């Protein structure tokens, strides 16, 4: 662990009270409360709604709002050997490095209920540079297809996926601009997660 690695994260004050969670939906609600607190109080980092995975000491970000299918795709990528950094928020610093936030992962079942998914593969680690950002829209039966996004548009897309406003965090814009300048941004469509996982691996390796 790097010295000062946890200096960004909000500290907990007062006694720690164990919480008893009876079902996945309650756990999801609690995780959402924790996420909101962390995003609002984190120091020196900007949160982006994005899955984050690492391979060969570089990161892949998958931007998208909640319930956009990020977690399903993240789970498939983990099965393909990626290191899990987050399925909901990627935290970016001034150097455009992404910090791990390996929260409890949830996917939605056919009834729309959130189900916890255990992550048994490696997760977390040092902050790493972002190699690729791939914004995907799910369409049943679609083939994987993406096109490059120019840097100026990439900044706009990233800002749309940051939960904090500029007046709340003036560093949001320069951090997103740095992220867009130091990585490659793509947007497109995907079908099933297994096919998208293979295509993302191939794209990521071509950019190395």
Keyphrases for this structure?
30% helix, disordered N terminus, 5 helices, 5-stranded mixed β-barrel, two-stranded antiparallel sheet, alpha+beta, 208 residues, Rossmann fold
Describe the structure.
- The protein is α+β, with helices and mostly antiparallel strands and 208 residues long.
- The protein has a single domain, classed as Rossmann fold.
- It is 30% helix and 27% strand.
- The chain contains five helices and ten strands, in the order H-E-E-H-E-E-E-E-E-E-E-H-H-E-H.
- It has a five-stranded mixed beta barrel with strand order 1-2-8-5-4. A two-stranded antiparallel ribbon has the order 6-7.
- Strand 6 and strand 7 form a beta hairpin.
- Helix 2 packs across helix 5 and helix 3 packs across helix 4.
- The two termini are 26 Å apart.
- The N terminus is likely disordered.
In short:
The chain has 208 residues and is an alpha+beta fold.
The biggest sheet amounts to: 5 strands, mixed, barrel
User: Count of DSSP E strands?
Assistant: 10
Segments where pLDDT lies below 50 for 5+ residues? Answer: 1-6, 12-21
Based on the structure given, which CATH architecture is correct?
A: 3-Layer(aba) Sandwich
Instruction: Report helical residue fraction.
Output: 25-40%
Secondary-structure blueprint of this entry?
Elements: H1 24-41, E1 46-55, E2 58-63, H2 70-79, E3 83-86, E4 89-92, E5 97-99, E6 105-108, E7 114-117, E8 128-138, E9 145-148, H3 151-160, H4 172-182, E10 184-190, H5 193-206
Parallel strand pairs: 2-8, 8-10
Antiparallel strand pairs: 1-2, 1-3, 1-4, 4-5, 5-8, 6-7, 9-10
């Amino acid at each position: 662990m790097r010295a000062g690695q946890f200096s960004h994260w909000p500290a907990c004050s007062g006694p720690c009270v164990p919480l008893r969670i009876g079902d996945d939906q309650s756990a999801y609600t609690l995780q959402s409360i924790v996420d909101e607190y962390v995003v609002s109080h984190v120091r020196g980092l900007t949160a982006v709604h994005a899955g984050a995975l690492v391979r060969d000491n570089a990161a892949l970000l998958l931007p998208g709002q909640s319930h956009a299918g990020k977690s399903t795709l993240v789970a498939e990528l983990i099965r393909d050997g990626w290191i899990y950094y987050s399925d909901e928020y990627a935290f970016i610093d001034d150097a455009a490095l992404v910090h791990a936030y390996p929260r409890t992962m949830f996917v939605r079942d056919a009834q729309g209920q959130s189900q916890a998914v255990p992550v048994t593969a490696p997760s977390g680690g040092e902050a790493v540079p972002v190699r690729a950002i791939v914004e995907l829209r799910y369409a049943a039966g679609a083939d994987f297809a993406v096109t490059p996004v120019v840097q100026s548009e990439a900044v706009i897309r990233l800002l749309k996926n940051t939960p904090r406003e500029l007046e709340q965090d003036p560093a949001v814009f320069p951090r997103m601009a740095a992220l867009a300048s130091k990585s490659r941004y793509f947007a497109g469509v995907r079908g099933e997660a297994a096919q998208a996982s293979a295509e993302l691996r191939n794209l990521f390796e071509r950019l190395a």
